[in-house]
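[audit] Reproducing an earlier prediction to check determinism. Same input, same settings, fresh worker. If the tokens differ from the archived copy the diff job will pick it up downstream; this log only records the rerun itself.
[audit] input (444 residues):
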Amino acid sequence: MKPEVVIIGGGLAGSEAAWQIAERGIKVVLYEMRPKKLTPAHHTDKLAELVCSNSFRSNMLDNAVGLLKEEMRRLNSIIMKCADKSQIPAGRALAVDRDLFSQTVTEQILKHPNIKLIRDEIKQLPYDKPVIVASGPLTSDSLAKDIIEKTGSGDLYFYDAAAPIISGDTIDYSKTFWGSRYDTDGADYLNCPLTEEEYNIFYNELIRAERYKRKEFEEEKYFEGCMPIEVIADRGPKTLLFGPMKPVGLYLPDGTRPFAVVQLRKENKAGSMFNMVGFQTSLKWGEQKRVFRLIPALKNAEFLRYGFIHRNTYINSPKILLPTLQFKNNKNVFFAGQITGVEGYVESAACGLVAGINMTCYIKGYIIPQFPKETVMGALINYITNYEREYQNKDFQPMKANFGILPPLDTKIKDKKLKRKIYSERSLKEVNNFLSRNKTAMKF
């Protein structure tokens, strides 16, 4: 009898890992503490709930995260299947109807004959059986404490923030225009322009606005890729014009370029909800309403969800994990998802996919295959497990998919488009070779 696998956490990584293992004929017990115990960021009991943006970012092969999606599709990713089914227009990005997406994932997991879902909190690592820890960046205090004690990883963390969501029927569309920067993504973004005077008023009120204070014992460490808008603004009056409010590549109907722009992206297919792109924030809720309504098109905006901030916990993976994602001191224990130091929805799910395949090989007695570093998936795993050795830096930080973590090409290429194209071709070739070399382990 093959032992059943315990998976802690029903987020993107946990759901993907459960699917990969179950599809290969092994029983899985998936523990998700919601709704019995909620987190500061989750609002539903659905699996794979998207707590921040509804965007999975670029869907293009000339972008590292778009390439990672294609790698996952070729490996039978349930997260990618559900994301593709719940896709809504977002130009070159893969955005989803967040409710439809999480509902679809939940339904697929619940109906799989090899997966049993238990709604309960796991407070300690079960060392006596195969387990994948995919409890995410909002791991409960009890489990986090047990992980820290057993791994000696230390209390590593950074702060993460989410953007507000606005009711579509409260936007003043007469003060907006549809379009994407350089017209590359079609007309999938609703743009809210500001004049120089309007921008200055907005900026001055933003930097004065009251924020939620961190706890005294916690150092403020934001992940650069999810910086709160007010923290960006603190760096200077012009910083927002080179960040989330940049007008570059956008033109008003009369052909002129606005001084600043706030972009809104649909949250659902109906277009009844819009996300303020790049406006993740730690402002108090009343201040969000006051300041963000200074944007002309949002003067009467109704906020369906205010932006928020929360602490994300992650382990010191380079010190405690093997390249297989196994805990060095107990090979029964695997880690997956954002708790390992990968950052982003797609990256988290990809890590879960690798952990699921590796756990299957471990249980069946196969040699655990190493994903090629030339793939984005393999490069991410290499980054979090070999960081200190390969990057010669002790300050381990979370990482999103990017071409910079892949091995360099054999020849230097100055043309960026051509360089990305070659990276992409090399990666997909390596994925196909990997599947051919490991037919037994990959079979599902």
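[audit] rerun output stored. Observation attached for the diff report: The two ends are 19 Å apart (CA to CA).
[audit] end
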